[in-house]
């Protein structure tokens, strides 16, 4: 698990409720795509909002997508994909509030539980977690 900063990571449930803390395995600024098999971008509003404005996180996402490794994003996670400039011509299924922004960036936005386009795997919301998780592990 990578973080944009050193120290513990505060997990959240429903964006508002604290759900424990975790120690990251490293800082994204120091991470190498070659040391990771895949990338899972978190959902919610807080984490995607912070990741998409962090230049190191955006660069890492861009490199991961370009490497061909699996990159998965749920809920508002595709915000960072958009910021990384990797959504044009790709089929994505995000949370409704960011669909227009992704369409404006050239993505083909669909409304289904999961969308797989090459190495990108996206899903709309926590309601889609069962099929999203099944897709990740297959």
What does this structure look like?
With about 140 residues, the protein is α/β, with parallel strands linked by helices. It is about 30% helix and about 30% strand. The strands form 4 sheets. The chain has a 4-stranded mixed beta sheet with strand order 5-6-10-9, with helices on both faces. A two-stranded parallel ribbon has the order 1-4. Strands 2-3 form a two-stranded antiparallel ribbon.
Quick recap of the structure?
This protein is an alpha/beta fold and 138 residues long. It is 29% helix and 28% strand.
Main traits of this protein?
alpha/beta, globular, 10 strands, 138 residues, 29% helix
Ordered list of secondary-structure elements with their pairings:
Blueprint: E1 2-3, E2 8-13, E3 17-23, E4 26-27, E5 38-41, H1 46-51, H2 55-67, E6 70-74, H3 78-83, E7 91-92, H4 99-104, E8 108-109, E9 114-117, E10 120-123, H5 129-137
Parallel strand pairs: 1-4, 5-6, 6-10, 7-8
Antiparallel strand pairs: 2-3, 9-10
């Amino acid at each position: 698990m990578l973080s944009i900063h050193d120290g513990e990571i505060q997990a959240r449930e429903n964006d508002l409720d604290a759900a424990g803390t975790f120690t990251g395995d490293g800082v994204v600024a120091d991470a190498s795509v070659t040391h990771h098999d895949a990338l899972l971008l978190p959902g919610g509003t807080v984490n995607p909002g912070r990741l998409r404005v962090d230049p190191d996180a955006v660069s890492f996402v861009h490199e991961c997508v370009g490497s061909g490794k699996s990159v998965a994003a749920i809920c508002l996670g595709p915000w960072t994909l958009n910021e990384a400039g990797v959504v044009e011509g790709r089929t994505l299924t995000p949370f409704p509030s960011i669909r227009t922004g992704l369409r404006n960036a050239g993505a083909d936005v669909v409304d289904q539980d999961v969308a797989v386009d090459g190495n990108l795997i996206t899903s709309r919301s926590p309601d889609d977690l069962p099929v999203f998780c099944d897709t990740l592990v297959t």
